[in-house]
Design a protein that fits this description.
Number of strands: 12
Distance between the termini: 72 Å
Bound molecules: glutamic acid
Helix content: 40-55%
Strand content: 5-15%
CATH class of the largest domain: Alpha Beta
Largest sheet: 3 strands, parallel
CATH topology of the largest domain: Rossmann fold
Number of helices: 18
Shape: elongated
Structural class: alpha/beta
Oligomer: single chain
Radius of gyration: 31 Å
CATH architecture of the largest domain: 3-Layer(aba) Sandwich
Length: 456
């Protein structure tokens, strides 16, 4: 039975690299009808914050990446870590190291001077006399041989044990260290597949050695290559939005971001658009690319627009409502959100843009001074006619409204292309909107007339 976990450290927002890892873990669990676990690696008390935990939970919820177990918090598991540290000490698989900071510093300097990699020299591992004072606990890493594993993405990887020194598993204050807590958790949670960023690849042989010492079954490992910015450097804030929730703010649909992240580093032929169901069916770890992928904002926008246009408007409306609320627009009095979405979806790439351009459906418009040139004296009689005819329409339909505009243009010897822009500015305060008949329809009769009155 497959068991995967997403194990973020809550030291910042949930960034899109993390979200992609979470997605791959989630997809693989869903595909295999396995279990997906969320584990919050919050042992770094100085850098972990409750806000960041919340941002991770909110990001996961927004992306709809639901977990079957957890969230587990490492800070709630200290008793368990201490128990395993004791076990390793008793079994002589770990030892107390009393080396002072000064000694370690000196050792380091000497090694650096000899151009050697700084590493612990095993002083306390070999110590025979009693020692006292403060100590940390180190794992007895095997002294020879290699650690070998078949990475599901990278293939066979081999590390010499002579390259790995005796890792500190408990600090002098007794707190367990990062590589150790991961091991205990992966073991206790019976993780079968560790899918994570390849920045952890050098931790893996250390973790494998500890797992072996504990007699644990080893999980399989898949190290996912990083995401690069457009300049080929590791993706970071410099490149723009990197937090999942910021993508929400910018007006992306979760399915667009998921589709994008799935394809960023994984492929199935040259298919670009995948529903979640398709992803679950088609995803496989072995198809994750070995090379790092470059982030492409244009493609993400393209996908977003695709999903805005093709998704059920009722579904889009839930996210759209969030944006309207963020902008402080009260949508209770005005057209149904689904109708606004249908009218606007062809011309906006993000929901935020759509929300910003939909204010006039719900709120009074102010005609800025520089817009007043759209109302020359010779157009005013036509606007008056439009006003009166809209008021007298027996039925408030798009066709009827269209009829009013064409008849009025004709009667005033105007091209519709001359009349419509003025009407549009009167209705919306601006020069961009859906087709004018649809726009008027959605604004509603009462408001439409009031706006023409305002201009007249
Ligand atoms: N907590 C680690 C991180 O956020 C992930 C560790 C892992 O997946 O093993 O980078």
């Amino acid at each position: 039975m497959v068991r995967t976990r997403f194990a973020p450290s809550p030291t910042g927002y949930l960034h899109i690299g993390g979200a992609r890892t979470a997605l791959y873990c989630w997809l693989y669990a869903r595909k295999t009808q396995g279990t997906f676990i969320l584990r919050i690696e919050d042992t770094d008390l100085e850098r972990s914050t409750p806000e960041s935990v919340q941002a991770i939970l909110d990001g996961m919820a927004w992306l709809n990446l639901d977990y079957d177990e957890g969230p587990f918090y490492q800070t709630h598991r200290f008793d368990r870590y201490h128990e395993v540290i004791q076990q390793l000490l008793v079994e002589d698989k770990a030892y107390r190291c009393y080396c002072s900071k000064e000694r370690l510093e000196k050792l380091r300097e000497e090694q650096m001077a000899r151009k050697e990699k700084p590493r612990y020299d095993g002083h306390c591992r070999n110590r025979t006399e009693e020692a006292e004072g403060s100590f940390c606990v180190r794992f007895k890493n095997p002294l020879e041989g290699v650690v070998e594993f078949d990475d599901l993405i990278r293939g066979k990887l081999v590390f010499a044990n002579t390259e790995l020194d005796d890792l500190i598993i408990a600090r002098s204050d007794g707190s367990p260290t990062y590589n150790f807590t991961v091991v205990v958790d992966d073991w206790d949670m019976k993780i079968t597949h560790v899918i994570r960023g390849d920045d952890h690849i050098n931790n893996t042989p250390r973790q494998i050695n500890i797992l072996r010492a504990l007699g644990a079954t080893l999980p399989l490992y898949a190290h996912v290559p990083m995401i690069l910015g457009s300049d080929g450097k590791r993706l970071s804030k410099r490149h723009g939005a990197v937090s999942v929730l910021q993508y929400r703010e910018e007006g992306f649909l979760p399915e667009a971001l998921l589709n994008y992240l799935a394809r960023l580093g994984w492929s199935h032929g040259d298919q670009e658009i995948f529903s979640i169901e398709e992803l679950i069916k088609l995803f496989d770890i072995k198809d994750i690319n070995r090379a790092p992928a470059a982030f492409n904002q244009e493609k993400l926008l393209w996908l977003n627009q695709h999903y805005i246009k093709t998704s059920d408007p009722a579904h889009v409306a839930k996210e759209f409502a969030w944006h309207m609320q963020k902008l402080g627009i009260d949508t209770s009095n005005g057209p149904a959100l689904v109708d606004v979405i249908r009218a606007q979806c062809e011309r906006t790439k993000t929901l935020r843009e759509m929300a910003e351009r939909s204010r006039y459906f719900y709120e009074d418009v102010l005609i800025a001074d520089d817009m007043k040139t759209h109302f020359p004296a010779d157009i005013l009689p036509a606007l008056q006619t439009v006003r009166d005819q809209l008021s007298a329409l027996p039925e408030w339909t798009k066709e009827e409204i269209h009829g009013v505009l064409t008849r009025t243009a004709e009667a005033n010897s105007l091209k519709l292309g001359k009349l419509a822009p003025s009407v549009r500015v009167a209705m919306t305060g601006g020069t961009v909107s859906p087709p004018i008949d649809t726009t008027i329809l959605l604004i509603g009769r009462e408001r439409a007339i009031a706006r023409l009155d305002q201009v007249l």
